[in-house]
Amino acid sequence: MTGDASPISILLDGSLSGGGLLAAATTGHYLVVGAALFAIGLACVIVKRNLLGVLMGLELLLNASIVNFVALGSPFVQPGGLGLDGSLCAAFAIVLAAAEAAVVLAIVLHFYNAHASIDVDRADDLKG
Amino acid sequence: MDWSFLVFLFFASLTCGFALAALLAQNVVRMAFFLILSLGASSGLFFLAGAEFIGAMQLMIYVGGTLVLLVFGVMLTASDAAVTMRSSVSDWFFACVPSGAIFIVLASSALAVPRWNERQPAPSPEFVAAANDQTSRLGLALLGLRLEPGEEGPAAGARAGYLFPFEIVSIHLLVALVGAAHLARAKRRAITPLPESIAAQPAMPAWYRYLFNVLGALAASKTALYLFAPQTLFETAVAYGAPPSVASELTTLNLSFEHWRLPGAAAVAVVALGLALLRFHKVSGLFVETLGFMIVIVQFWYWGATATAQMAAVSWLGLTMLLTAAFFALPERRQPVAEVVV
Amino acid sequence: MEAWIPWCLSLAVAAPLVAFFAILATGRALPGSGRPGFWISLGAILASFALSSAAACLWWATGDGIPVAVQNFEEPAAEVLRKDGPAGRVPAADALAEKHGAKTPRMLAGPLLFFAQFGTLRFELTYLIDGLTILFFPLIAGVATCVILYAGAYMDDELRPVIDEHATGEDDGPVRRPGRYARFFQFLCLFCFSMLGLVLVGDLLGVFIFWELVGAASYFLIGFYIEREAANAAANKAFLVNRIGDFGMLTGIAMFVGAFGTLALADRAPVAAERGVDAGLFSQVAERTSGASGSSTVVAPSAGSVEEASTVVPGREGPIWPFVNWHSYLTVAGLLLFCGCIGKSAQVPLHVWLPDAMEGPTPVSALVHSATMVAAGVYLLGRVYPLLSPDALAVIAIVGIVTALAGAAMATVATDLKKALAFSTMSQLGLMTLSMGVGGWFAGLFHLATHAFFKCLLFLGAGAVQHGTGTLDLERMGGLGRKMPLTAGLMLIGSIALSGLGLPLIVLPGLGFAGFHSKDAILEQAFVFAQERPWGWILFGLAACVGALTAYYVARMWLLMFLDRQESHADADDPYHAAPAHDPGAAMLFPIAVLAFLAVVAGWTGWQSVIGSALAAFVATLLFLRLSASSAWRRPAMAAAFAFGGWSVLSAAQTLWLPDVSLQMTLQGAMPPDLAAAETHAEGAVLARAVAGGLALLAAVAGATLAWLRFGRRRRLPLLDSALARPTRLVLLKRLYVDDFYRTVFVDRYFSLTRTAVALDRWVFDRAVDGIASGGRATAQFWTKWVDDRGIDGGFDWFGRATLRAGSRLRQVQTGSLRQYVFFLAAAAVALFVLVFFFLDPEAALDALRQTRESR
C-alpha cells in the first residue's frame, strides 16, 4: 500500500485472494459487455418508433464504444494497450455525445414542430 | 472467482440488464429511466478499470447532463400517443436478427483474440501507485504533454499531446451548441395582426444587439491575452508542458513587453473598431475584426512563431464562426410581430 | 528627388485611366443620372494636374535653372546652323555651346513597360522627360480641368432623357434616348490619359500607341451624338482621314527602325560611350548626319568627321542602300513621320476632317480639336525635331504656310461660329508648322501653348453663346453684347489674344496678350529664315498675310456676335429672337475666366510679367471704379484686379529670387542643343524683331480695322463687297472644293468599286458557295436520317429508356423508413464481417501479402 494510491484502488486492492482484484476481469469480458450494449442499442434504434427512443439507442451505441475504449486503455485491464489514448478517446467521445445529444434534440423539436409527432415512421420524406 | 470479478459481474449485469429493460420498455419515460441506470452502472465498470476520471465524466456529463436533456425532450414532446408507441412483431424480428448477429460476431471476436483473454498477473503496488494518477496525466495531455505511467518529464518531447484536438473539440462543441440553438428556436408565423401598441415593440429585445459586443469583447480579450501576456500565459504553458514546438518558439522569441505593445495595441484597436462596427453593420464589423486578428496572426508568423500563429488562427476561426452563426440566428431587422406557433 | 518626377508623371497619366475604367465599370449604375461620373473625372484630372505641378516643381527645384545664355530676348532666333552647316555639325555646336555656356537640355529617360525584344530591337514603352514634357503636362491637365469643369454644367441636358431634334428616329421624328452624361466624361478621361501618355513617352512605339489612342478618343467624342447623321459621318471622316496620315507615320517609324534598329528617341541612360544599340535615335541620327556629312555628294571628311566615322557602328557606313544616301533616306522617313502630323494637325491636304469634327459637343471641340489633340502633330514635330532633315523641314514649312493661308481664308467667310473657329485652329496650326519648318522650334511650340489657352477660351465662349441662344449661326446673331456681357468680354480677351494685337516697344520687346508674343516669334523666325534664302520671303509675306486675315476674321466673328445690328431681321418665328439670351452660370463662366487669365499672362516672362500684370491690374481697377454698381462686369473686374495684382507680386518675387519658370523659359531650356547654340549667336536680332514685329502688328491692325469698318461701321468696301469678290467667297464657302474633289475622285470611285465587288460576290462567289452548301446539305440530310436518327439517337434513346426503367425499379428500394435503413446498415456490417472472417481467410491473405513483400 503506497500512500498516494487512489482510494478506489485501495478499496479494490484489499482482496481476499493473492492476485490483484483489478486483474480479475479480462479485456474480453469488458468487450463482451460492450458488444451486448452495442447489440441492444442497435436493436433499440431499429425497433423504437419514438424518435427519442432512437436517440437513447444511439446513446447506448456510444456508450458501448466508450466501454471498449476504457477497457483497452486501462493500464490494469490491458497493460500495453492503448494507454492514455484510450482514456482520452473515451473522454472526447463523451463530449461529442453531449454535443450530439443537443443537436439531435434540436432536430427532434424541429421535427415535432413540423409534423406534430415524433414517430420515426412519419419521417418518410425521402421515400422514392 | 474472486471479489473483483464479482464486482465486475455485478456492474456488467446491471449495465446490460437495464439496457435490455430500456429496449423492452414501451413507455418512453421509463425507457429514459432505465437508460440512466444503465449508463450509471457502466460508470462503475470504468472505476473498476481504473479510469476514475472517465467514470466521473460519465456520471456528471452523461448521466447528469445529457440524459436530463433527453428527459426534457420527452417532456417537450409529450403526448399520450408519443409516450407509448408500440412496434409490431415484424419490427421486433427485424431488430433482433441483425443485432443478435452483431452481438455474436463482436463477442466471438472479442473472445477469439488470445491477448485479450489472458488473466493479467496482479500489478505490483509500485505500478499501481504510478498508474493511478490518470487524472493528472490526462490534464497534462490536454495541455500538450503526454506521459505514460512510469515515464518521467523529459520523455514528454517524444510524443505529441492533445492540445490541438482539445481546441478543435471545444470549438466543435461551441458550434454544435449554437447550431442546436438555431435549429430549435421557435418559428414565428404571421397569422393575425396584433394591436398597434404591441406591434410597435421591436421583435427582439434591445440587449440582444449587445450580444455582438459581448462576443467581440471575448475576441478582444483573447487577442489581448495572446499579445500582452507572454510572460504569464506562455510561461505557465511551458511549465505545464506546452508542446515543445510552442515552448521553444516562445523561449527563443524572447520578446519583451516593449516589442508587443505597439502592434498589439494596434491589433486590439482594430478588433475593437470591428466590434463597434458590429452593432451597425455586421459584415463590415466582421471584416474589421478579422483584419485585427490577421494582424495578430501575421505578427506571430513574422516573428517565426508559426505554431502560435496557428493557435491564433484557430481561435479566430472559432470566434468568427460564432459571430457568423449569431448573425444568422439573430435577425436584426424588425419582424412582423405575430402569434408564436410552437 | 529627381527620381520622383517619372513617378509623378506616370501617376498623372494613370489617374484619368483609372477614372475611365471606374466610370466604365459603374456606368449606368451611377446614382443621380450619372452625375458622379463628373466628380470622378474631375477628381482624376485634378489629381493629374496636382501631380504634374508637383513634377514641375521637382523639376525646377532639382535642376540648376534654365541655361542663362539661351535667353534670347535681346538676340532673337537666327538661322539654324545644323540645317546646312558644314560637316562636323554637332562638334561645332558643342563647341559653341561650351564657349557660350549653353548646355545640352536636361533630359530624363527610362523604361515604363517592356513588351518584347526581337534581336536587339526592344519593343517597350519608355519615358522621356525634358522641359517640353514638364511644360505640356500641367498645360494639358490644366486646360482639361477647365474643360471638364465647364462640361459638368454644359452637359446638364444629358442628365435627363434627351430628345434630339437634330437626329432622325425611326418614325421620322426626333430621336429619344437616355442621357449619356457619365459616358461623356468617361471618354474625356480616356482622352486625357492618351494625351498625357503621348507627351510622356519617349519612343516611337509609344508615340504611335498613344497617337492612335487619342485618335480613338477623338472618334468617340466626335460621334458622341451618334444618332445624328452628321456626327456619325464626321466621326468616320475624322477617323478615316487620320488613318491615311497614320499609315504614312507608321511607314516612317518602320524606316527609322530599319535604319537604326531602335525605337527609343533618347539614349538608354546613362549615355553609352560606345554607340551600340543603346544609343537612341537622336544620337544616332546626329552622328549619321554629322559623320557621313549632311550633303551626300561631298565625301571629303574633315578631321572631325574622320574621328566621328571611326565610331560608326560596323555595317552602317556609307549609303544605306545602293543609290540611296542617308540624307534622302532621312528626308523620306522624316516626311513620312510628318504625314501623321498632317492628319492629326489638320494640315493641307488632310485638313478636311477638322471642320466636320465640330459636330461633337463644344467642350470636346475646345479640348480635343483646338487645344490639345490637333496640337499633338506640332508637338510631335517638336519632339522628333532632331530627326528631320533640312529638305524635310522645307516641305514642312511649305505645307504649313499653305494650310495657314487656306484656313485663314476659309475662316473669313464661315457662317457657323464653331466652324469658323475650326478654320482658325487649322490656320494657327499651319503657322506653327511653318515655324517648325523654318527652324523655329521654340516659336512653334510657344505658339502651340498660348494657342491652347485662347482657342480653348474661344470655343468655351462659343459654347456659352450656343447655350444662351441655341444657335451657332453667325448670320442670325447680333446684339449679344448687351445680353451676355461677361461672355462678350471674355471672348474679347480671347479674340485680342488670337489676333495678335499688342503694344510694340523696341526696348521692352512689346507687351500684349499671349498670342502677340508667340505670333511675333513665328514671324521673326520666318524673317530670319528669309534673310538666308530668297524664297523664304514668300513664306514671310504669306505669314504676314495670315496675320492680317486672322485679325480680320477674329474681329468679324466678335462683331457679328456681340455688336448691335442696325438692320433688324428679327421675326417672331425665330426662336433665337424669342428666347432672351443670357450669360451662363458661374460653373461655365469660371473656367472661361481662368483661361482668359492664362491667355493674358502666358506669353510674359520675367519683368515683362511683372509690368504687364501690374498694368492689367491697373486697367481692371480703373474698370471697376468706372463701372456702375449694376454692371455685370463690376465684380469680375474686381476679381481680375486682384488676380493680376497677385500675379504681378508673384512674378516680381520670382524674378527677383527664383529661376524663371515661365512658359517661354521652360521651352528655351528644352531646345535641341544645336538650335539653342545657334540662337544665342543670331545676328541682326534687333532688326528682325523690329521689322517682323512691326509688320506683324501692322498686318493685324489692318485686318482688324477692315473688319471694324465692314461689320462695325457697316461700310461697303470697294474690293471686298464688289461683284468680283463673290466667286472668291463662293469658293471659300465651298471649302476650296477640296471635299468635293475628294468625294468625286476617291469616295465615289470607291463606292463604284464596292458595287462591282458586291455584284461579283453575289453572282459568282455566292452561287459557288450556295452550290457547295446545298450539296453538303443533301449529304447531311442523308446522314441525319439514317445514321443520326436511326443509329446513334436510337441507341442513346434505348439506353435512356433502359436507365429509366431500372431507376424506377430501384426506386422502390427507397422506402423512406429510417428504421429499415438502420436494419440494412446493421445487416451489411454483419455480412461484411462474415465475408471477411469466414470466407476470405484474412490470415491467408496477410501471408500472401507478406510473401510478396519478401520476394521483392
Q: What pair of chains forms the biggest interface? A: A-B, 91 and 105 residues
**Strand content bin of chain A:** under 5%
Span of the ends, CA to CA of chain C? 72 Å
Q: In terms of quaternary structure, what is this?
A: heterotrimer
How would a textbook summarize the main sheet of chain C? 2 strands, antiparallel
Apparent shape of chain A: elongated
Topology pattern of chain A, helix = H, strand = E: HHHH
What does the average pLDDT of chain A come to? 79
How does the helix and strand content of chain A classify structurally? mainly alpha
What spatial form of chain C do the alpha-carbon principal axes imply?
elongated
Low-confidence stretches of chain A: 1-11, 13-21
Distance linking N and C termini of chain A: 66 Å
Query: What proportion of the residues of chain C is helical, as a percent range?
Result: 55-70%
Q: Please give the share of residues in helix of chain A.
A: 55-70%
What is the number of helical segments of chain C per DSSP (H or I, 4+ residues)? Answer: 32
Mean pLDDT of chain C, to the nearest integer, reads 83
What is the compact description of this entry?
The complex is a heterotrimer of chains A (128), B (342) and C (856). Chain B has helices at 3-24, 28-48, 52-76, 80-83, 89-112, 125-131, 134-142, 163-184, 196-199, 207-228, 230-239, 244-253, 257-278, 282-302, 306-329.
Write the layout of secondary structure elements.
The complex is a heterotrimer of chains A (128), B (342) and C (856).
Chain A: H1 7-13, H2 27-47, H3 51-73, H4 84-115
Chain B: H1 3-24, H2 28-48, H3 52-76, H4 80-83, H5 89-112, H6 125-131, H7 134-142, H8 163-184, H9 196-199, H10 207-228, H11 230-239, H12 244-253, H13 257-278, H14 282-302, H15 306-329
Chain C: H1 4-26, H2 35-62, H3 81-84, H4 89-100, E1 108-118, E2 121-129, H5 131-154, E3 162-168, E4 174-177, H6 181-200, H7 204-222, H8 229-260, H9 281-291, H10 303-310, H11 326-344, H12 353-356, H13 362-371, H14 376-383, H15 390-413, H16 417-437, H17 441-469, H18 480-483, H19 485-499, E5 502-503, E6 511-512, H20 514-532, H21 536-562, H22 575-578, H23 586-601, H24 607-626, H25 634-657, H26 663-669, H27 673-679, H28 685-712, H29 725-733, H30 738-810, H31 818-840, H32 842-855
Antiparallel strand pairs in C: 1-2, 3-4, 5-6
Helix pairs in contact in C: 1-2, 1-6, 2-5, 2-6, 4-27, 5-6, 5-13, 5-17, 5-23, 5-26, 6-7, 7-8, 8-11, 11-14, 11-15, 13-17, 15-16, 15-21, 16-17, 16-20, 16-21, 17-19, 17-20, 17-23, 17-26, 19-21, 19-23, 20-21, 20-28, 21-28, 24-25
